[in-house]
Amino acid sequence: MKTDQPIRWGILACGGIARKFADDLTHAKNGHLAAVSSRDIKRAQEFASHYDPSVKAFGSYEDMLSSGEIDVVYIASPHGLHYEHTILCLEAGIPVLCEKAFAINSKQVAAMIAKAREKKLFLMEALWTRFHPSIAKLQEIIASGLIGDIKHVVADFGFKAEYDEEARWFNPHLTGGSLLDIGIYPLFISKLLLGQPLEMKATGVMAPSGVDMNCSIATKYASGATASLFSTFAAQTDTTCTVYGTLGKIYMHPRFHETKGMTLTIYGGEETVMETERLGWGYSYEADAVQEDLHAGRTENAWMSHQFSQELMGLLDEIRSQIGLTYPNE
């Protein structure tokens, strides 16, 4: 693909997160929305009506994938459909950016990666937080040695959701539960900063539908660090992350996974508040990363590698095993 050729994005499934991603493509450096698809053509047309008149609407995923109108697809369907839809796109020869959680379990993720490698096509999990400027600043501060060695990470994500067994958050057939939906963010930040845990213990409180309402996780790492991670649909939490080091700490402002700022505290010294950029909702950064990889002919991203996603899903599998959460469609 020519490096000066704008990337044409297609969106599969027209839900709320798809709207945010589509909005943010206006901030992407060398790409634009070209097509959207839904199983309901009217839904696709309504979605497309919010954007440039050139955006095409399809009432079939297959029709969009075979149209010749797109270079890459963003999959925005519920977790439980990610495997099916990723394979569909890869079989059609279209590179994929698939929303988190990448799939339901490690077996599905392994099959998705194997198919991408077989087809020599790009595949990445859309864990947008990884590409935010705030994460780059966080890593820069840690690498500088200002806070010393990391000893503990605390991260939470919670909001109060009205219980409805048919809603995506609580429906086991739609892979509901706080862990895969929002608990993945605290787990991600701990893995990014500390790597794979040596030990992990999880406990959960289940909703009447059988998915997790609350999930609490404690981890230990080879470095001697630990982490306390929490997600819930039962209460509004601060949704912050604090990284405690031997010399200081970094407090990521709410909501930490999309924050525009953080506070650095050196023990016995000053507090420094730092602001970081966030264009729009914050999704254009991952789009830019995908576009750069496609122009360079790469089939995976170095920051959000296949191995990272495979290991992250393995941790989610282990947590679900410990809290007794299984899904009917796995």
Automatic annotation (TrEMBL):
The UniProt record lists the keyword Oxidoreductase: yes
Keyword check for Mitochondrion: no
Origin superkingdom: Bacteria
Transmembrane portions of the chain: none
Keywords attached to this entry: Oxidoreductase
Domain GFO/IDH/MocA-like oxidoreductase: 136-250
Any Pfam family hit: GFO_IDH_MocA
Domain Gfo/Idh/MocA-like oxidoreductase N-terminal positions: 7-124
Family per similarity comment: Belongs to the Gfo/Idh/MocA family.
Name of the molecule in the record: Gfo/Idh/MocA family oxidoreductase
Species this chain originates from: Aquirufa avitistagni
